[in-house]
Amino acid sequence: MILAIKDGQFHKINSPVKVVEIIRNDNHPLVRTWMVKDAIAKHRKLFGWKLIEQKK
Question: Can you tell which superkingdom this protein's organism belongs to (predicted)?
C-alpha cells in the first residue's frame, strides 16, 4: 500500500498507476509510473506529494 499526502489530502493507494492518476489530476500531466517508483525508493517528494510505501 502507498500513502500519498499533500496539503491535508490523504490517499491510501494499492498501485503506482493509481498514484500517477491522482498526481495527474493535481495538474501535473507529465508524471510517469517510473517517477512514482523512484520517488518512493529514494524517499523524495514528487510534485509536492509525499509518497510512503507501507509493507503489509
Answer: Bacteria
